[in-house]
Amino acid sequence: MKNLRAFVLLLCCTGILQAQESIHFKNPSFEDHPHINRTPKEWVDCGFPGESPPDTYPSGDYDVTKNAYDGRTYLGLVTRDNDTWEAVSQQLSSPLERGQCYRFSIFLARSPVLNSVSRKSPERHDAKYITPVVFRIWGGRSPCDKQELLAVTEPIKSVDWEEYFFNLSPTNDDVTHLLFEVYYSDQYGASYNGNLLLDKASMMEPIDCRLTSDSLQMINQVENDKQRREALLKKIIIPESIDPDLFWEWAWEYGPQIKFTAHGGLATELYSDENGKVLDGNIYLHYLALAAQQLSGSQLQIYVHGHDAGLLKTRKTALQQALYNWGFINERIKVFSVVGELTDPPKDLPENALFFADEVLGFYFIP
Length: 367
Fold this sequence. Notes:
The protein is α+β, with helices and mostly antiparallel strands. Helices cover 20% and strands 29% of the residues. The strands form five sheets. Strands 2, 3, 5, 10, 12 and 13 form a six-stranded antiparallel beta sheet that branches. α1 packs across α2. The radius of gyration is 23 Å and the shape is elongated. The N terminus is likely disordered.
């Protein structure tokens, strides 16, 4: 009953406090043309002199192919084994007032693949930047100013987008700028190569500081439960036995639903598997991949086609990365790309192969 009263009181208080102006960023979802060494517009690079700036993904560079959670692009930050790390900063629409508490959230994930080089080695050897890092939020009075540490996370290990909630409360001075930074965790050593992906930073909403522990967690849990309920309504259910005719019907139904973002990433949504685990991916591709696994001796070939070779490469990589992440590494599903319009199946396919194509993808099924 005590928690319930606190929960109701918090809802009442936040309703009053939110009448105040919410504080926001410009370009909170880090939208820009995807490219390495390109800090998203409106954000300031706060990295080390002589080091490359942060990256706007998914560009396909460094083998990072994850789709954005919101919009088309997101921010990528790294730590390095030469004791340098990346950070970005921006001036807020209005200051965070000293002594006031603000509710803030952002989506974070770790890329399972990020291949670059190490400056620590004179030969600049290839290096994998995949070790989990912590995320830190600093408050300041100017770009890149780190006057007060407002929040820090545990190492971010998940490769799926997850929303992280924070209670920001400046104690030293009003804060006009926030800085997002990645840093090393003692769990993994003094300095190492790691990465963090950031997307969809929320507004900062005033909340009652007296009710920011258990009650805030209750609010966050309600929102997470809502997302989970919506995802559970989209559940993958595969019959125990599938014949080629049923699979081909599914290919006709689900194939055209496999969409891409404007920059070539695979369009994703939240859904759940048969065990109720919530996933962030393309449910239609996942359906076809699971079904193809049950057809011994059959093969599904997916062809990406069009006239932009660079875009085709990105789309092909996005499909392959999704299949790899789900564990489909075999000969039953293959992905190809063809420059030009795809109107006829390849001549070397068996006579019994089935074929259809839409404006983006072509599907060839060999029963």
